[in-house]
Amino acid sequence: MPSTSNTNRAYSAAHFALELDNNQQVGLFRSIEGGSIKADVMTYQNGANYDRWRQLGKPKFEDIKIQTGMSMSQPFYTWIANFFTGVPDRKNGAIVAADFNYQERARREFKEAMIKELTFPKLDGQDKNPAYMTVALSVEEIVFLPGKGTKLADAAGTENQKLWASCNFSFNLDGFESACKRVSKVDSFTIKQNILEYHMGAQRAPVKTPSQIEFPQITFYVPEPDAEPFLKRFKERGVEGALRGNSQNKSGELVVFDADVAKNELFSLQFFGADIANVQPDKADASSEEIKQIKIDLYTERMEFKYLAK
Questions:
Q1: Gap between the Cα atoms of 106 and 144, Å rounded
Q2: 88-117 pLDDT, tens per residue?
Q3: For residue 253, what are the contacts with CB-CB under 8 A and spacing of at least 6?
Q4: Residue 41: pLDDT above 80?
Q5: Least packed by Cβ within 10 Å: which of 144, 163, 254, 267?
Protein backbone atom coordinates (compact mmCIF):
# COMPACT_ATOMS: atom_id res chain seq x y z
CA MET A 1 0.00 0.00 0.00
CA PRO A 2 1.58 3.36 -1.01
CA SER A 3 2.50 5.85 1.70
CA THR A 4 0.14 8.77 2.18
CA SER A 5 2.96 11.18 3.12
CA ASN A 6 4.09 13.44 0.29
CA THR A 7 6.66 16.18 0.76
CA ASN A 8 5.34 17.93 -2.37
CA ARG A 9 1.90 18.48 -0.89
CA ALA A 10 0.79 22.04 -0.17
CA TYR A 11 1.03 22.96 3.49
CA SER A 12 0.27 25.79 5.89
CA ALA A 13 3.42 27.29 7.40
CA ALA A 14 2.73 27.29 11.13
CA HIS A 15 6.19 27.45 12.73
CA PHE A 16 9.40 29.27 11.84
CA ALA A 17 12.93 28.70 13.12
CA LEU A 18 16.18 30.59 12.74
CA GLU A 19 19.49 28.86 12.16
CA LEU A 20 22.85 30.60 12.58
CA ASP A 21 26.41 29.42 11.93
CA ASN A 22 26.74 25.73 11.03
CA ASN A 23 22.99 25.02 11.12
CA GLN A 24 22.69 25.83 14.81
CA GLN A 25 19.00 26.41 15.58
CA VAL A 26 18.69 29.39 17.91
CA GLY A 27 14.92 29.31 18.41
CA LEU A 28 11.45 29.83 17.01
CA PHE A 29 9.97 33.18 16.06
CA ARG A 30 6.48 34.46 15.31
CA SER A 31 6.55 35.72 11.71
CA ILE A 32 8.77 36.58 8.76
CA GLU A 33 8.47 39.27 6.11
CA GLY A 34 10.58 40.01 3.03
CA GLY A 35 13.57 37.92 2.03
CA SER A 36 12.78 37.89 -1.70
CA ILE A 37 15.11 38.23 -4.69
CA LYS A 38 14.51 40.96 -7.23
CA ALA A 39 16.26 42.39 -10.29
CA ASP A 40 15.84 45.63 -12.21
CA VAL A 41 14.77 45.37 -15.84
CA MET A 42 17.24 47.17 -18.12
CA THR A 43 15.97 48.57 -21.43
CA TYR A 44 18.16 49.25 -24.51
CA GLN A 45 17.38 51.13 -27.72
CA ASN A 46 19.82 51.10 -30.66
CA GLY A 47 20.11 54.39 -32.57
CA ALA A 48 17.09 55.29 -34.65
CA ASN A 49 15.66 51.81 -34.29
CA TYR A 50 12.37 51.97 -32.39
CA ASP A 51 12.69 48.42 -31.15
CA ARG A 52 13.68 47.96 -27.53
CA TRP A 53 15.54 45.10 -25.89
CA ARG A 54 15.26 44.19 -22.25
CA GLN A 55 17.31 42.09 -19.90
CA LEU A 56 17.68 41.65 -16.16
CA GLY A 57 20.19 43.74 -14.23
CA LYS A 58 21.91 43.00 -10.95
CA PRO A 59 20.03 40.95 -8.36
CA LYS A 60 18.73 42.61 -5.20
CA PHE A 61 18.33 40.60 -2.04
CA GLU A 62 15.54 42.07 0.04
CA ASP A 63 15.92 42.57 3.80
CA ILE A 64 14.53 39.82 6.02
CA LYS A 65 12.29 40.98 8.88
CA ILE A 66 11.47 38.57 11.68
CA GLN A 67 9.15 39.18 14.63
CA THR A 68 10.27 37.47 17.79
CA GLY A 69 9.98 37.59 21.55
CA MET A 70 12.08 35.99 24.28
CA SER A 71 11.91 32.44 22.94
CA MET A 72 15.30 32.55 21.22
CA SER A 73 18.58 31.28 22.71
CA GLN A 74 21.72 33.06 23.93
CA PRO A 75 23.57 33.31 20.54
CA PHE A 76 20.71 35.33 19.04
CA TYR A 77 20.66 37.89 21.86
CA THR A 78 24.48 38.10 21.79
CA TRP A 79 24.12 39.04 18.12
CA ILE A 80 21.70 41.80 19.14
CA ALA A 81 24.07 43.05 21.85
CA ASN A 82 26.90 43.29 19.30
CA PHE A 83 24.62 45.29 17.01
CA PHE A 84 24.34 48.03 19.64
CA THR A 85 28.13 48.36 19.81
CA GLY A 86 28.47 48.85 16.05
CA VAL A 87 30.45 45.63 15.60
CA PRO A 88 29.83 44.25 12.06
CA ASP A 89 28.87 40.78 13.27
CA ARG A 90 28.08 38.89 10.07
CA LYS A 91 26.20 35.59 10.19
CA ASN A 92 25.37 32.81 7.78
CA GLY A 93 22.17 30.91 8.47
CA ALA A 94 18.70 29.95 7.33
CA ILE A 95 15.03 30.68 7.84
CA VAL A 96 13.18 27.38 8.25
CA ALA A 97 9.43 26.99 7.65
CA ALA A 98 7.65 24.02 9.19
CA ASP A 99 4.10 22.66 9.22
CA PHE A 100 1.82 22.15 12.24
CA ASN A 101 3.74 18.99 13.15
CA TYR A 102 7.03 20.94 13.34
CA GLN A 103 8.30 19.09 10.26
CA GLU A 104 10.63 21.18 8.11
CA ARG A 105 9.08 21.90 4.70
CA ALA A 106 11.12 24.77 3.22
CA ARG A 107 14.20 26.84 3.99
CA ARG A 108 15.83 30.07 2.87
CA GLU A 109 19.58 30.06 3.41
CA PHE A 110 21.34 33.43 3.62
CA LYS A 111 24.94 34.64 3.78
CA GLU A 112 26.73 37.64 5.32
CA ALA A 113 23.67 38.81 7.27
CA MET A 114 23.89 41.87 9.53
CA ILE A 115 21.24 43.34 11.80
CA LYS A 116 19.98 46.52 10.13
CA GLU A 117 17.10 47.59 12.36
CA LEU A 118 15.70 46.62 15.73
CA THR A 119 12.22 47.79 16.72
CA PHE A 120 11.06 47.44 20.31
CA PRO A 121 7.29 47.21 20.85
CA LYS A 122 5.13 49.63 22.79
CA LEU A 123 5.09 48.79 26.50
CA ASP A 124 1.89 49.53 28.41
CA GLY A 125 1.12 48.79 32.04
CA GLN A 126 -2.48 47.89 31.11
CA ASP A 127 -1.61 45.57 28.20
CA LYS A 128 -1.16 41.92 29.22
CA ASN A 129 -0.67 40.59 25.67
CA PRO A 130 2.65 39.05 24.56
CA ALA A 131 5.19 41.55 23.23
CA TYR A 132 7.37 41.07 20.14
CA MET A 133 10.34 42.92 18.74
CA THR A 134 11.08 43.17 15.01
CA VAL A 135 14.60 42.47 13.73
CA ALA A 136 15.55 43.43 10.16
CA LEU A 137 18.48 41.57 8.57
CA SER A 138 20.47 42.88 5.60
CA VAL A 139 21.85 39.93 3.58
CA GLU A 140 24.18 39.57 0.60
CA GLU A 141 22.77 36.31 -0.75
CA ILE A 142 19.59 34.22 -0.41
CA VAL A 143 18.97 30.70 -1.72
CA PHE A 144 15.56 28.99 -1.67
CA LEU A 145 15.77 25.28 -0.87
CA PRO A 146 13.29 22.48 -0.05
CA GLY A 147 12.99 21.37 3.56
CA LYS A 148 15.04 18.51 4.95
CA GLY A 149 11.96 16.80 6.39
CA THR A 150 13.34 16.72 9.94
CA LYS A 151 11.54 18.04 13.00
CA LEU A 152 12.45 21.34 14.56
CA ALA A 153 14.57 20.98 17.67
CA ASP A 154 12.77 23.51 19.88
CA ALA A 155 9.06 22.73 19.67
CA ALA A 156 8.43 24.45 23.02
CA GLY A 157 9.77 27.81 21.93
CA THR A 158 6.36 29.32 21.24
CA GLU A 159 5.29 28.58 24.82
CA ASN A 160 8.30 30.45 26.19
CA GLN A 161 7.19 33.48 24.20
CA LYS A 162 4.27 33.99 26.58
CA LEU A 163 6.79 34.95 29.28
CA TRP A 164 7.22 38.44 27.83
CA ALA A 165 4.09 40.55 28.32
CA SER A 166 3.81 44.21 27.40
CA CYS A 167 2.90 45.25 30.96
CA ASN A 168 5.97 43.84 32.75
CA PHE A 169 8.65 46.54 32.64
CA SER A 170 10.38 49.20 34.71
CA PHE A 171 11.82 52.50 33.52
CA ASN A 172 14.40 54.53 35.40
CA LEU A 173 16.31 57.75 34.73
CA ASP A 174 19.21 58.85 36.94
CA GLY A 175 18.17 61.78 39.12
CA PHE A 176 14.47 61.09 38.58
CA GLU A 177 14.08 57.81 40.44
CA SER A 178 10.98 58.87 42.40
CA ALA A 179 9.29 60.44 39.36
CA CYS A 180 9.85 57.30 37.26
CA LYS A 181 8.16 54.88 39.66
CA ARG A 182 4.79 55.32 37.93
CA VAL A 183 5.83 55.34 34.27
CA SER A 184 2.74 53.92 32.57
CA LYS A 185 3.79 53.57 28.93
CA VAL A 186 6.86 53.55 26.69
CA ASP A 187 6.25 54.10 22.98
CA SER A 188 7.74 51.83 20.33
CA PHE A 189 11.14 52.92 18.99
CA THR A 190 13.64 51.71 16.38
CA ILE A 191 17.45 51.57 16.40
CA LYS A 192 18.86 51.72 12.86
CA GLN A 193 22.22 51.01 11.32
CA ASN A 194 22.82 52.44 7.85
CA ILE A 195 24.00 49.82 5.36
CA LEU A 196 26.15 50.93 2.40
CA GLU A 197 26.34 48.98 -0.85
CA TYR A 198 29.69 48.66 -2.63
CA HIS A 199 29.68 47.53 -6.27
CA MET A 200 32.91 46.19 -7.69
CA GLY A 201 34.26 44.49 -10.80
CA ALA A 202 32.26 41.74 -12.43
CA GLN A 203 30.53 40.78 -9.18
CA ARG A 204 26.80 40.95 -9.81
CA ALA A 205 25.60 41.53 -6.25
CA PRO A 206 27.00 44.38 -4.13
CA VAL A 207 29.00 43.95 -0.94
CA LYS A 208 27.16 45.45 2.02
CA THR A 209 29.05 47.30 4.75
CA PRO A 210 27.75 48.84 8.00
CA SER A 211 27.82 52.57 8.70
CA GLN A 212 26.79 54.68 11.72
CA ILE A 213 24.01 53.70 14.13
CA GLU A 214 21.09 56.03 14.73
CA PHE A 215 19.70 55.94 18.27
CA PRO A 216 16.16 57.30 18.52
CA GLN A 217 14.37 59.37 21.14
CA ILE A 218 12.56 57.41 23.83
CA THR A 219 9.03 58.54 24.62
CA PHE A 220 7.46 57.63 27.95
CA TYR A 221 4.44 58.76 29.97
CA VAL A 222 3.97 59.63 33.65
CA PRO A 223 0.92 60.88 35.62
CA GLU A 224 0.75 64.66 35.70
CA PRO A 225 1.52 64.89 39.49
CA ASP A 226 4.88 63.17 38.85
CA ALA A 227 5.92 65.50 36.00
CA GLU A 228 7.25 68.45 38.06
CA PRO A 229 10.93 67.30 38.15
CA PHE A 230 10.90 66.79 34.38
CA LEU A 231 9.33 70.21 33.80
CA LYS A 232 11.95 71.85 36.04
CA ARG A 233 14.80 70.06 34.25
CA PHE A 234 13.51 71.01 30.80
CA LYS A 235 13.03 74.63 31.85
CA GLU A 236 16.68 74.79 32.95
CA ARG A 237 18.00 73.22 29.76
CA GLY A 238 15.45 73.89 27.04
CA VAL A 239 14.11 77.32 28.06
CA GLU A 240 16.89 79.02 30.03
CA GLY A 241 19.72 77.38 28.04
CA ALA A 242 21.76 75.96 30.93
CA LEU A 243 24.82 74.11 29.64
CA ARG A 244 25.17 70.41 30.30
CA GLY A 245 28.28 69.08 31.97
CA ASN A 246 29.32 65.44 32.20
CA SER A 247 27.89 65.20 35.72
CA GLN A 248 24.51 66.30 34.35
CA ASN A 249 24.61 63.81 31.52
CA LYS A 250 21.61 61.69 32.42
CA SER A 251 21.56 57.93 31.93
CA GLY A 252 18.84 55.39 32.54
CA GLU A 253 17.59 51.87 32.00
CA LEU A 254 14.56 50.03 30.67
CA VAL A 255 14.18 46.54 32.18
CA VAL A 256 11.71 43.90 30.97
CA PHE A 257 10.44 41.10 33.26
CA ASP A 258 8.67 37.80 32.66
CA ALA A 259 5.15 36.97 33.86
CA ASP A 260 6.33 34.87 36.81
CA VAL A 261 5.47 35.92 40.35
CA ALA A 262 9.18 36.40 41.08
CA LYS A 263 9.45 38.89 38.18
CA ASN A 264 12.63 37.49 36.66
CA GLU A 265 14.52 39.92 34.44
CA LEU A 266 14.57 39.09 30.72
CA PHE A 267 16.69 41.88 29.27
CA SER A 268 17.70 45.47 29.94
CA LEU A 269 18.24 48.39 27.61
CA GLN A 270 20.63 50.95 29.07
CA PHE A 271 20.96 54.41 27.55
CA PHE A 272 23.72 56.97 27.94
CA GLY A 273 24.12 60.66 27.19
CA ALA A 274 20.38 61.07 27.73
CA ASP A 275 18.45 64.22 28.55
CA ILE A 276 14.92 65.58 28.25
CA ALA A 277 14.00 67.00 24.84
CA ASN A 278 10.27 67.63 25.28
CA VAL A 279 7.60 67.68 28.00
CA GLN A 280 4.10 67.66 26.56
CA PRO A 281 0.77 67.46 28.43
CA ASP A 282 -1.71 64.90 27.11
CA LYS A 283 -4.91 65.99 25.37
CA ALA A 284 -7.45 67.33 27.90
CA ASP A 285 -11.10 66.34 27.50
CA ALA A 286 -13.82 67.10 30.07
CA SER A 287 -15.72 63.94 29.11
CA SER A 288 -12.72 61.63 29.54
CA GLU A 289 -12.24 59.55 32.69
CA GLU A 290 -8.65 58.59 31.92
CA ILE A 291 -5.81 59.65 34.21
CA LYS A 292 -4.08 62.78 32.92
CA GLN A 293 -0.69 61.83 31.47
CA ILE A 294 2.41 63.82 30.56
CA LYS A 295 4.42 62.76 27.50
CA ILE A 296 8.21 63.05 27.86
CA ASP A 297 10.74 62.69 25.03
CA LEU A 298 14.25 61.61 25.97
CA TYR A 299 17.13 61.86 23.50
CA THR A 300 20.05 59.44 23.81
CA GLU A 301 23.58 59.27 22.45
CA ARG A 302 24.21 55.57 22.97
CA MET A 303 22.39 52.41 24.07
CA GLU A 304 23.44 48.97 25.32
CA PHE A 305 21.42 45.74 25.23
CA LYS A 306 21.95 43.11 27.95
CA TYR A 307 20.32 39.67 27.92
CA LEU A 308 19.51 38.75 31.53
CA ALA A 309 17.34 35.62 31.27
CA LYS A 310 18.83 32.33 32.46
A1: 8
A2: 889 999 999 888 888 888 899 999 999 999
A3: 171, 172, 268, 269, 270, 271
A4: yes
A5: 144
